[in-house]
Amino acid sequence: MASTGMQIFGFVLALLGIMGAMVATLLPNWKVSADVGSNIITAISQMQGLWMDCTWYSTGMFSCTLKYSVLSLPAYLQTARTTMVLCCVLAAMGLCLASLGLKCTRWGGGRRSKRHAAIASGGCFVAAGFLCLVPASWFTNEVITNFLDSNVPESNKFEPGGAVYVAFVSAGFLFVGGSIFCMSCSGKRHGPHDLVLLPPPDKLLLQQQQQLLQQQQQELQHQYCSLSPLDNKTGYSLQDYV
What residues contact 93, with CB distance under 8 A and at least 6 apart? Predict the structure, then answer.
């Protein structure tokens, strides 16, 4: 029962992880402009994401431009795009396998099949967490390196945005959820390998009654066959009176 509860807890963590990874992939604030220097500019905030760059103005207006050219992007940004998409796809596959490997569900086959599905889903979650952690770490390193570079003007300095923190938290959720699924089915199991599904109580009671009636019929037939021919006579013969 405890293992089933841990599986449900891991499934919830993995679900939160994939939702966070998808949100982080779409958010445009992977890095935001740093409030350094005393330059007065029209734009009060600049944000750059994986797919678009947005600018907020002091008048309350904002504008976003999509990044159409892939080859013109730096290597770390191209890698972040690819790994985050793969993370979402792999985590979605893990959720499908986890729904089959949950012990509290009736679909997914026997115990051995559920065990294999749970371990496979755990591996998908761990791999997805790694794919989510790599771009977040690389992106953060690039932003911090450029921020500390004295050759970069203050107006072009950025700091990590909220999407990076969401990616880090999502990677942690995926790691923990995948580890729980892998550990919940890693121990040795005693007894039959396949899960025996019991019928409903009404059907089970009817089967027991049928089996009891068959046993009684067999006992009566056995007793009837064991009687002697003299005991089987039901009428009188003329020789009995002569």
Answer: 124
For residue 10, which amino acid is it? Answer: G
List, in order, residues 6 or more apart from 18 with CB less than 8 Å away.
88, 91, 92, 94, 95, 128, 170, 174
Q: Describe the strand order of the beta sheet including 31-33 as a list of residue ranges.
A: 62-66, 52-57, 43-48, 31-33, 158-160
Say which residue, 75 or 154, is predicted with more confidence: 75
Distance CA 83, CA 134 (A): 8
Residue 197 DSSP class: P
Q: Are strands 52-57 and 31-33 parallel, antiparallel or unpaired?
A: unpaired
* Positive or negative: CA dihedral 206, 209, 213, 218: positive
Q: What rounded mean pLDDT belongs to the chain?
A: 80
Cβ-based neighbours of 15, under 8 Å, separated by 6 or more? 95
CA angle 203/107/126 to nearest 5° reads: 155
CB 128 within 8 A of CB 62: no
Q: How far apart are alpha carbons 173 and 79 in whole angstroms?
A: 21
Which pLDDT tens digit goes with each residue over 161-199?
A: 999 999 999 999 999 999 998 887 655 444 444 444 455
Other CB atoms within 10 A of residue 125 CB: 33
Indicate the DSSP class of residue 227.
S
Angle CA(120)–CA(121)–CA(124) in degrees, nearest 5? 90
Distance CA 23, CA 62 (A): 20
